[in-house]
Amino acid sequence: MHRAILATAVLGGCFYTEPINQRPSIDIQRESADVVHRGDFVTFTAITSDPENQTIDLAWTAFLCTDASADGGCDVMPFATGTLDKFAFKVPPVRLELNPAKPVQSILVGLSAQDAYGARARPDQHAIITVDNLAPVVMLRPDSRYGYVEGVDLDVFALVTDPDDGPDRIPALAWQVFTPMIGDTYTQSIEAPPSTDQVSRTERLTLHAPTGPGLWMVSATATDPLGATDAQTIMFDVEPDRDPCLGQWSPIAPLDGVNAVPLAARTLFQVPIVNDDLDVYPPQPADHVLGTTRFTWSIKQPGASSFVPLATTTNGVELDPGDYAANDLVELRVQIYDRRNVAITCDPTLLTCSTSSQPSCIQRLTWRVKVP
After folding, report:
1. pLDDT of 281-296, one tens digit each?
2. For residues 342 and 54, what is the distance between their CA atoms, to the nearest angstrom?
3. Is the pTM of this model over 0.90?
4. First-to-last C-alpha distance (Å) of the chain
5. Which residues make Cβ contacts (< 8 Å) with residue 69, sequence separation at least 6?
6. What does DSSP say about strands 36-37 and 125-132: parallel, antiparallel, or unpaired?
7. Cβ count within 10 A of residue 129
8. What are the residue ranges of helices labelled H in the chain?
9. Measured between alpha carbons, how far is 238 from 236 in angstroms, rounded to an integer?
10. Rounded CA gap, 306 and 298, in Å?
11. Distance CA 103, CA 94 (A)
């Protein structure tokens, strides 16, 4: 009888068990489908669901990678973590655990979650971002305050930028120089001072004493750490050093061979300005490239048949009417030379003369001066 009562009690009694806690579910959603480059901001959102509507604790991780799909292709430690629904970060330029550093080419993003009762979402979610590479940009600019004159140093400046690698991770540029003719000569030097900002840097190529007039070409190629390149070529004409030309003179000289400058008082006959590529007047003593015009003076005294050189090498000669008689005719001549010292071989009877092909260029000037 006792067994029957026990059986009835067991069979007719009530039991209570805790409900089973179900796992939450998670997913990763990227907010933009735009191509990602180093330096860009990327934002993700966690899509979550829990059958019991419990609070879900999130854990984000992001790892810098060369190849996120390969073993050992990522850093061991995450460079960014988060616990909120939104997970945002800026893509760094290089992996943090490699020496030498390598550019970031992909990022592995992970998301795990558990609810308030400790049930974990299975499986953890992962997303791989491919990080595209932007090519560097190089821009060339020739520079010479003296013009592009044969035999004078010429600088070419290259401005280098790279929006995702930064200018200092771009190796030295590859320069090429193309001369007009075989046999044209030059030497070159390259200076690459450290960049003064995070955006660009400058290299300078100096062509030392290029010889050979004509069209010169200079090209520079920038290559980033992943092999993307940019090249630019510029062209410029190198000209021969031209002959010097008288720019101004005083007093005004009649050049018809008939009229003369009256010498009624002491008068300074001078050349205040000479135009030339490299040897100018007035002189520029602080300039290490520019030279100074060389002046030679000569005079044909009244009744003489030829010119006699004067000792002065200045840009002016003074004549005094007191040194002459009335109606005397004096001829005063100046000739100018630059560093090439090309001889002025015109007929000595000509009042003006030039070896230049420029019609308006005068290298010899003669004043016919008459004492009243």
Report:
1. 999 999 989 999 999 9
2. 98
3. no
4. 170
5. 106, 128
6. parallel
7. 20
8. 2-12
9. 7
10. 10
11. 4
